[in-house]
Design brief:
Blueprint (H helix, E strand, L loop, with lengths): L1 E4 L6 H7 L6 E5 L6 H9 L2 E5 L16 E2 H13 L3
Parallel strand pairs: 1-2, 2-3, 3-4
């Protein structure tokens, strides 16, 4: 499941309710950076943050490796659909 929100703020919690039966939810955002606290809350709620690669530098260095790029998400999706990269 991929939800999109221009900004995360508290709106990311809507994703949890919108897809309560899906274990891991992906959230694509164009927001530049979120706090570490907010990111950890998302992670604990099984929300995987997806951002365009150029925006990764706007996030705290401590969470950058845990972000998923849009390109990476699309690659995973291709694997699910076709069984190949």
């Amino acid at each position: 499941m991929l939800a999109t929100k221009t900004t995360c703020r508290d709106r990311w919690r809507q994703v949890i309710n919108e897809a309560d039966r899906i274990p891991v939810k992906h959230l694509l955002t164009l927001q530049e950076g979120v706090s570490e606290t907010q990111f950890h809350e998302m992670t604990q709620a099984n929300v995987q943050l997806v951002v365009p690669e150029p925006l990764i530098v706007t996030f705290p260095a401590s969470i950058r490796t845990d972000l998923m790029t849009l390109e990476s998400f699309m690659g995973d999706l291709r694997l699910l659909v076709t069984g190949t990269a």
